[in-house]
């Protein structure tokens, strides 16, 4: 991939290993990643440095890094085409973070809505890392001169500040960074919480609110059976008045490829039990082969670790190119060592 990195546009994506990847993650991003790797040079980073802004159990964090890599590969990411590595294995992320922090204004960081949200959830651990989180995210992206970054609606601010920092440095020193654009899929449902369907499905909420990619079929069926609907009995798509029903219809449509309209017609007069059964069947049929492949990959930890190490070696080489350029541009002393 290192030799090909200039031939295609570069797409960078980072995911935290601080919790379980969900059905929402799969529908919104993961299932498209194996298609993107044919169009872009894809860099998939497991951002464990970001994860420690919240207190983590060390052994669990290390295990989850491997699990995320295994899930990525089980979902179709080919390590021969894409890089899959841990953020902490490439020191350039932390190094560029410092340089960028010197070109980022306090006022910009104070306006970040995610900082306020995270402070509300971590009242006993409001650390500097939470405040400067967007600078490290900018370093993740700019370190590889990424052209595109897949984002959800809640991360648009992070792309905006990354672009602002890159343009500020380019304005002072000339051509230093590629200014990245947000990659927003043309189609894709926004999967909501099963217990609070007005909110996005999130791994940080209660376990009944989300379906994890690794949930066993009986757990999936139990969670969907408990999913919030309403006191009405009519199956129709109405996100404002029937958010729970609409969410289940979105899930079926996203996984089956059928239009919501045709699904509604097929379920007319059958009640919410039939709707939930149809949703559970779709989810189980989709996730079962992924789970089987995941188990196969995780059975050979040495192979998986080898993939992460090889990707990190390539990522380090790419990172050093950017760091060398940045250090030279801002005037840092150059080392004579090879």
Determine and state the CATH class of the largest domain.
Answer: Alpha Beta
Task: Assign the CATH topology of the largest domain.
Answer: Rossmann fold
Q: At the fourth CATH level, what is the homologous superfamily of the largest domain?
A: HUPs
What proportion of the residues is helical, as a percent range? 40-55%
Distance, first to last CA: 23 Å
The run of helices and strands is: EHEHHEHHHHEHEHHHHH
**What is the mean predicted local confidence, pLDDT?**
91
**% residues in beta strands:** 5-15%
Largest sheet: 3 strands, parallel
Describe, in short, the structure shown.
This protein is mainly α.
Question: Can you give a write-up of this model?
Answer:
With 338 residues, this protein is mainly alpha-helical. The protein has helices at residues 23-39, 48-51, 58-74, 92-101, 106-110, 113-121, 128-142, 156-173, 217-225, 243-256, 260-267, 271-298, 301-330; strands at 10-15, 41-46, 83-86, 148-150, 181-183. The chain has two domains: 2-183 and 301-330, Rossmann fold; 207-295, Tyrosyl-Transfer RNA Synthetase (Orthogonal Bundle). The chain is built from 13 helices and five strands. It has a three-stranded parallel sheet with strand order 1-2-3.
